[in-house]
Amino acid sequence: MSLEAIQVGTRTIGPDHEPFVIAEMSGNHNGDLERALDIVRAAADAGAHAVKIQTYTADTITLDVDSPMFRLSADHPLWPNRRLYDLYTEAHTPWDWHEPIFALAQELGMLGFSAPFDPTAVDFLHGIGVPMIKSASSEITDLPLIRSIAATGLPTIISTGTATMGEIDAAVRAARETGNERLVVLACTASYPAPPEASNLRGIPVLRDALDVQVGLSDHTLGIGASVAAVALGATVIEKHLTLDRADGGVDADFSLDPGEFASLVRETKIAWQAMGKARIGPKEIEAEGLRFRRSLFVSRDVKAGEKVSADNVRSVRPADGMPPDSFRDIEGRVFREDVPLGTPMSLDLL
C-alpha cells in the first residue's frame, strides 16, 4: 500500500520522509510563559519538527463538580484523587499564550499547533492560522468534535488511546465525511506513564492497512525505545512529551523527556527510518569493497610444474579473485601445468 504524503507548511509527512517528531508541551510550562518559550527553544535545539500544546480551559473540558465521577482514582500513579477541574486549571495553557508560542516555533523553523477540546477552541485555533490540528485520545468518541476539527481542511491527527478498532474506524469515517483526507492516526496507550508491554506496536501496520491512513505513535512510555521500534513498524509521526527538567516537577514531568533525551529521540528515530531501506535482498552498492574481499582459492605457496593440487598448496583465503572455495573438491589431485608463485588466484588455466 502506498500512502500519499501530507504537506504541512514546509514539512512533509510520509513513509518516504524522515519521521515527523512532535514535542508535546502539555502542562510542562508549569503556568509560566517564559518556561513555555524555553521549552519551545529546547525543542528546536533537539531537532523537533513541531511543538504541540493543548487548547482548553477547565470550564471547556469538564465541570466544576466535586464528586467521585469527577475525580481521578485514588491509586492513580501521577494524580491520585485529583479533582478534574483543579487538574485542568493547573495544566491548561492560557489562550493568549498560543500566538507567542507559535510565533517562536515558526521563527525557530518548527510548526506550532494544538489539540482543541471543544468547538470554541477549534474556531480559535483555525482563526489564528495553525497549520494542523489534533484530536486527543479521550475525545475519540466525540464525533461532532472530530468533524469540526477535520472540517477546517487542515491536516488532522487523531489519537487513539483507550479506543477499540470500531471506535477508531468511526472517528476516521467522521473526519472523512468532511472531505478531509489529510489524516494521521496515532497509536497510543493512554496511561501516564505507559509500560512498554502495553504498547502493542504490532498494531501500527494493522491500523495503516485497515484504515488506509498514515499511522504514528503518541508515546507515553519512559525513554525512546518504543518510538524507535514504532518507526521500524511504519510510524511516520512520533509525539513525545518534553520538559526542561523532570526534577522541576509539573503535571506531566514524570513521563516526559528532557532536552538531551529528546535530541536522542530525533536522532535515533531518523536512523531507524534510514535503516528500513527497501524490501530487497542482495548486494548493495555500498558493499562493493566487501564483495572484493570474499574468500576464494589461491595458490598458498610457490609450486612447481607437475605438483598435484592439495590443501598444502591451495587454500581458501581473501580476496575473491580466485575460484569459488567449493570448487576445491573438483580440482584436488589435478596437476599444475607450470610453475606458479605464491599468491596467484587459482584458475583452471593453471592445471
UniProtKB/TrEMBL annotation:
Pfam families: NeuB (PF03102), SAF (PF08666). Residues 296-351 form the AFP-like domain. It comes from the Bacteria. Gene3D superfamilies: Aldolase class I, Antifreeze-like/N-acetylneuraminic acid synthase C-terminal domain. SUPFAM superfamilies: AFP III-like domain, Aldolase. InterPro entries: AFP_Neu5c_C_sf, Aldolase_TIM, PseI-like, PseI/NeuA/B-like_N, Pseudaminic_synth_PseI, SAF, SAF_AFP_Neu5Ac, SAF_PseI/NeuA/NeuB. SMART domains: SAF. NCBIfam families: PseI. This is Pseudaminic acid synthase. The lineage of its organism: Bacteria, Bacillati, Actinomycetota, Actinomycetes, Propionibacteriales.
